[in-house]
Write a structure and sequence with these properties.
It is built from five helices and eleven strands, in the order αααααβββββββββββ. By secondary structure, the chain is of the alpha+beta class. A six-stranded antiparallel beta sheet has the order 1-2-3-10-5-8, with no helix packed on it. A three-stranded antiparallel beta sheet has the order 7-6-9, with no helix packed on it. Strands 4-11 form a two-stranded antiparallel sheet.
Length: about 190
Amino acid sequence: MSTDDVLAEVGPRLRRIRKERQVTLAALSEATGISVSTLSRLESGLRKPSLELLLPIAQAHQVPLDELVGAPPVGDPRVKARPITRHGRTLYPLTRQPGGLQAYKVVEPQRGGEPDPRTHEGYEWLYVLSGRLRLVLGQHDVVLSPGEAAEFDTRVPHWFGPAGDGPVEFLSLFGPQGERMHVRARPARS
């Protein structure tokens, strides 16, 4: 397929994706900062697509750019990132794109010590695979079992780790805010 053929298919694909999501041209214009007339010309094929136009549209629809241009699958889709060990926790990256939503499988052995709640921007989602996960969130102190999930605003002081009776494995999902530096919720004791 030639480049011209690929580009000719972008407009109808943009219209189909927008209509599937029941989004008007005006709403998409507001979300992307691209004028309604430019969006209309893109969809009808009267305007040649460019990265400058396609990137904000992909972000607004929350789809990969490949889906907008109909790029064929490339390479091995398996995530082969190496495990990362921090403070006794082993994190297995389940996503490979920097920024955006990040997913990790976390394996944490039993550990001692008192919870040290921290805060940061964003939201976090936890799902327990095995073991028991203790979550200290503000005034709440709960234990999650396999199959249970928790979602919370990370601006609330929080801490999570094994419930004290063995290791725990869980999934952790967070956006770019979750990658920022953690700030102590209260001063450390000297």
